[in-house]
Design a protein that fits this description.
Blueprint: E1 20-28, E2 33-39, E3 45-55, H1 63-67, E4 69-76, E5 79-86, E6 95-104
Antiparallel strand pairs: 1-6, 2-5, 3-6, 4-5
Amino acid sequence: AGGGRVPTARVAFAPGRPAVSRARTVALVPGRVITVAHRCQPGEQLLAWSQAVGLELSRQPSPRQLAAVRATVARRGDRVVGRGWASLALAGIPARMQIQLVCTRGRPLP
């Protein structure tokens, strides 16, 4: 059902070191909690992160279908850990969770 925009960084970095977007997408299994971790590449700094969920439908999902899927994400050290869950009511409807990271090779300015 779509995702949000990339969050704005809260720390200033030296120019010339562009930010890179990295994403990991996993299928949600109805009735099971799925946990997935993602991190920036070695030498990169994590600037921001978010998560999104999606349902594979040919039309807009109903409020009931949207309420049948949940996802959370939290930073744990240098990783971002996401947990997603889909209700058994979604059996037969492919559901996915995506963790999105914004990373840079720069170092924060003093």
